[in-house]
Amino acid sequence: MHLLYCDESGSAPDPNQNHFVLSGISLFERQVFWLSNELDRIAERFDPAEIPDVELHGSPMMGGRGIWQPFTKADRIKAIEDALHALAKSHPSNRIFACVVNKAKVSPFDPVEIAFEQVSSRFDHYLARLHKNGDPQRGIIIFDKSTYETALQGLTTNFRTLGHRWGLLRNLSEVPLFLNSKASRLIQLADLVSYAIFRHYERGDDQFFKIIADRFDQEAGVRHGLCERL
């Protein structure tokens, strides 16, 4: 089973932001425990007594908001970089799927729907590729609890039964699951990945993006894991 942990960066309705990003980290089920432990060790630096209370989220970490206020910017940035490096150095089967949408260019269409269609279909195609190569696997998409929950579950059902523009979702075991990010280090890591991608496209800042740039799904030199609707 492959699990795709997803989160977004950028606000779809915010007129002051040009881009919306949805990204997911695909992990084979046995990789989840190892990577979660790596992230726990990073969180432990900031509150050894209450490690689960330290949530790794890009925007508050960068801005020093909430629980991050007492810590230096250098320490906060190092934590983001170390979390992304944990993914970058992890098993080669762990890979990123993401869609970057320029909201003005796709208007009046919903950037969330466009991004989800791209990410889910590319994840599905990846699973189909594994199957073709003799490794039959099913997948589940896991999101942070968000205002998009009902819409995304409906979209997945439609894609599986009516199809999207490239066909049907054939390799997913269930409609998306939604978790509280506090309960999942991998949802938090997906947030950091989306934040890194968002800063790259929205602000031209590749400080974090360059760490994960080689982890987008690719085959034979073709990068399938990053969609740009710019």
From TrEMBL:
InterPro entries from the entry?
DUF3800
- Which Pfam families has this protein been placed in? DUF3800
Recorded protein name is DUF3800 domain-containing protein
Biological source species? Dyadobacter linearis
